[in-house]
Request: fold
Amino acid sequence: MPELPEVETVVRQIAPVIVGRTFKHALLRGKGKQGVLHQTLSRGISLLPGATVLEVYRKGKFIVLRLSGGLAMVVHLRMTGMLLFEPSARLKKFIRAEFRFGDGFKMYFSDIRRFGRIWVADEREAIRLCGLGRLGPDPLEEGFSAKDLAGLLMDGRGTGRRRGILKSALLNQQLIAGIGNIYADEICFRARLHPRSRLEKLRQSDLDRLHEAILYCLDEGIRHNGTTISDFVGTRGEAGEHQQYLCIYGRKGKPCCRCGQPVRKRTLAGRGTHFCINCQPLRK
DNA sequence: CATTACCTGCAA
DNA sequence: TTGCAGGTAATG
Reply:
């Protein structure tokens, strides 16, 4: 479900509501063994009562609640995780954790596929446990330049381009944090590069367009409150609107909005990948 | 690299 | 019934 723009949408919705509130109870729903959430959250959940939310921020697809007492709660929504204040009747069935604040206000973590994870620990420990420390730069951080992007795509010694496939690089969170399958396809389309292009064959002009496309596509997604294909909703169940503006993702067989050729779909980097062979030349 | 596993619901 | 889904880690 959620990539950078959807996670940013959630952060903007929860921050003004929960900053300043103090946890009173937190509980995992469902008994025992119920999947990965239990593994990551069961240990730290007892630390929450009494902790006040000081700040909410995002890096890549991680949501971090900085708490009093040097604690942090880190949330990764993975495919179908949602933070909800007003769960719909349908989503109530999938609530995996419940957080109640001192004033009685509640926030729920709902997750149909149970891939989502939450960590609670001392801030440093939480960031280490969840892997947030290993993320590459978030492209929407102040000052992420075309030069920075070019630097990422260089090999370790800076002597030549990193090898590999463009789409894999865009999806690699250790390289750049926050891009997922939908926006990777949209970015390649806007940059007019075939997602199977080899990194080492990209020219400076390609990298410049790629940089512009990354910022543009992510910003537009945020501006439209995220993309809802089937599951993504905000804290009160609202869908995003960006699905109306997608140029290439999910448009298999439909005419390319730029040239009219049918949009192709094939599997790349293990993910369904959409592109226009006419508008997106392959650098091979 | 590609493939599989982790889960569940839904459309084909 | 099968295959697919916005994510990621583990495995070959």
